[in-house]
Amino acid sequence: MKPVRTLAAALDEQVLVLDGGLSNQLQAQGCDLSDALWSARLLADGPEQIEAAHAAYVRAGAQVLITSSYQATFEGFARRGTGRAEAARLLARSVELARAAGEGTDREVWVAASVGPYGAMLADGSEYRGRYGLSVAELERFHRPRVEALAEAGPDVLALETVPDADEAEGLLRAVEGCGVPVWLSYTVDGLRTRAGQPLEDAFAVAAGLDHVVAVGVNCCDPRDAGPAAAIAAAVTGKPVVVYPNSGEEWDAEARDWRGGATFAPDTTARWRADGARLVGGCCRVGPGQIAELAGTLAADPEK
Length: 304
Fold this sequence. Notes:
alpha/beta; 12 strands; about 15% strand
C-alpha cells in the first residue's frame, strides 16, 4: 500500500528492506536486456514485465522499490527516436509501475525513483570509473531535467545511486535542489574510495548538513566493502545509511557479462546495521530469494 509515513520517519523507527536487482529479475522472467537502454527499454515495450518484477520483490518482503529509470534519460530515449514529451511520460511510468506493484500488499511500500549516473546513459561501463571529463555544472545540467520529470511523478524519494565520483555527487545534489522530494545518495565504491579514487570521507562530506538528503551509503559494490563504507558514511554525515551491494560477482564491461562467484549473504546484515545501516537490500544479481532471506533475518532479529 502507499505509505502513510515519510521514508525519513520510517527510518527513524525501523530498518527497512530494499529490493534487489531489477535487471536480473527481468532476465529471469525471460526479458531481453541487450538494448543500450537496458531495463528502461521495457518502459515502452513491456511495462507489465517491470511491474511483475517489482511485485516479485514485494512478495519477497521488500518495503522500498527502486524504479526502472536508472538508465532512462532524455538523451538515451532520443537515440531511439523518442521525443522529450514521450520520454517524460515514460519516466513517470517508472514511478507508476512501482507504485502499482506496492499496492498488492497491506504493508507500507515506498517508491524510490532511480537517478543513475551520467555513465549509465553512455552504456559503456563508465559508471564504474567516473571522471567523464565534465564539470560539476555540466553534470548538474545533464541531471536536472530527468530529476524534475521524476519528481513530478510523485515518488517518495529520489535514489541518486551508483554514483562513482564525488564531483558527480555534487552535481546531482545541485540538480535536486528545490525539487520537493527527499533523496538518498549512494556511491559505488572500491574499498574505502569511490570508483574515481576519492576517499569516502571526502565523498560523503558533500551530503553532510543537507536536510533533504535522508540517507547516504553504497550500492553496486562488493558486499565485503559495504560495512566499512557504511561506517564512514554514518560517521561523516550522521545520517541513516543505505546499503545494497551486488552479489559479489564482477561485471566485465567489455564482455558485458558477470564473472566469479556470489558472496552476498543476507545474514551479514547485522554487521551492516551495527555500522549504521537502516535501509538494506541488494543490487545486481541479488534476486527475490536473497531478499526474502534478508527480510526473514530482519524480522527474526529486528533490533540488532
